[in-house]
Structures are given as C-alpha cells and as structure tokens.
Amino acid sequence: MPLRTFKGQDRRIGAIIKTLLGQFTTQKELDEFLEWQDKNGKYLSESKLAVSQAVENARVNIDWANKNQKLVVEKLREFSVSHHLEQPSWASWRKKPLFMSSLYAIHNISSSIMNKPHV
Question: How far apart are alpha carbons 64 and 68 in whole angstroms?
Fold first, then answer.
C-alpha cells in the first residue's frame, strides 16, 4: 500500500537521491544513508541504478575531501591573507563572483573549526 505514493516517481526519486548524496563529504553521512537504504530499500527499488551511481559518486567525493581537505583550507587561507593585503574591505567582494564570497565564508568557518582544541 505505501508504495503507491511513489508509483511512477522512480526518476524523480533517483534524481533527489543523486542530488542529496552529491553533497555528502563525510563517511558518517553516507553510512547514515546506507543504513536508511537498508531499512527502506523498497521505496528505491525502481531507482536502483540512480541510487547505485549516487552512492559511488558520494564515495568519490568523500575520498577526494579526505585527501584534499588540508590543501583546500591552506589555499583558502593563503588567498584570504594575500587578498586582504590588497583589498582589506568586505566591500571589495561585491564585484567578485558570488562563489568567492562563499569560499571566504568557508575559510572563516574552517579556521574556527581547525583552531578549536580537540577533546
């Protein structure tokens, strides 16, 4: 009975799962999804290929993030320091592409996380 809700929506469900898993950057996120999938696989039966592709893509993303996180944070810090020497005002970001301000925000977040004492 509950499967009627999703009948004919397999492509949409597959696309949603791909979008969701495409944002995963930690093994914990993927493990939680895989656990949910084990319990709710019946809802994904018509979207097996899309789900399989999404899981593989998430694994690649997680691997990349694990291998490159330190380098990305270092480069963001390097860019931020050199950029602030040239243009110290936040107003200078107004003329930059939107993703640059996002990178700046990520840099600030990562700085605060990396500088916290580990318990």
Answer: 6
